[in-house]
Amino acid sequence: MTTSHPGGTGTLGEHTVARIGYGAMGLEHDVPHDDALAVLRRAVALGVNHIDTASFYADGLVNRRIRDALSPHADDLVIVSKVGARSAASGPLPLVLAQQPAELRAAVELDLAELGMERIPVVNLRRADLGPGLIAEGDQIVDLDDQLAELITLRDEGKIGGIGISNVDLATLHRALPAGIVCVQNAYNMLNRTHEDELALCTERGIAWVPFFPLGSAFPRFPKVADNAVVQGVARELGVTGAQVGLAWLLAHAPNILLIAGTAKVAHLEQNLAAGEIVFSSEQLAALDGVAAESPDGDGVEAFLDERR
């Protein structure tokens, strides 16, 4: 087992974590159980100590696999969950919104039971008033202050550690800051820098920035970073993949960016972690920085992947 941390180290609330972590969403029903456990154990063996999950991933299966693979948890293992949705047995998506304070509490309790933990180190509130993804309607339109009050109570009770927030604009982030936000998760990558102003605020305040869609996606209006001509050129110069260049650029772009790239394959996991070893020349970094950012407007087509994340 290695003691190195892929990508170096960063801060997530009160925790020091590897800057390249692991997003466990993909360890769902179609992944054999032994394969899922092997990926999780290999990640930790290679120095990953930041794992992202949620109780609504595969109706709790992902959480239970994390428990099976990694329990008893190492002292420095930081498991981060997300609340704001719950699993659904029927419907167009495998989940529905669960934004009410009581639903947030229920999700935390479910995390604790499924993961076999007494305290979740960080819990992110996934807001639903900003696309892409499901947008709150009816009784799921809940005031941010009411949600944060419940999470603060859970923190005071010792059931969660830090509070994070996901899928928010700059105004909402400013409203949330007094709660002691330690993490922000937003769609962000080299080609989609819509939230650059929020990243700058988080960098200034030492708040972890954890991008989802870090390499784009297969859905319309979310182009893949690896398909960009400049990215491909730099990848050829370095003898690496375009995806590795996209991940390495994020690490180079701001010191508070933490990655949670996910995969169900050990070989792909090792490739993602190797992105932390890439060093760009000043010319390469300038070329990547100059790639024209694209701002997808989103029309709901990409909701399925985003909400399963």
Topology, element by element:
Blueprint lengths: L8 E4 L2 E4 L3 E2 L9 H13 L4 E3 L8 H10 L7 E6 L1 E3 L7 E3 L3 H15 L4 E7 L17 H13 L3 E7 L3 H7 L4 E7 L8 H10 L2 E5 L16 H10 L3 H12 L12 H9 L7 H8 L13 H6 L1
Parallel strand pairs: 3-4, 4-5, 5-8, 8-9, 9-10, 10-11
Antiparallel strand pairs: 1-2, 6-7
Helix pairs in contact: 1-2, 3-4, 7-8
> Outline, from the CA principal axes?
globular
Could you tell me how far the N terminus lies from the C terminus, measured between alpha carbons in angstroms? Answer: 28 Å
- Compute the number of structural domains: 1
CATH class: Alpha Beta
Helical content class: 25-40%
> Total number of β-strand segments?
11
Strand content: 15-25%
CATH-derived architecture? Alpha-Beta Barrel
| Sequence stretches where pLDDT stays below 50 over 5 or more residues | 295-309
Number of contiguous helices: 11
**Neighbour order of strands in the largest sheet:** 3-4-5-8-9-10-11
Largest sheet: 7 strands, parallel
Give the CATH topology: TIM Barrel
Main structural class: alpha/beta
* Helix-strand string: EEEHEHEEEHEHEHEHEHHHHH
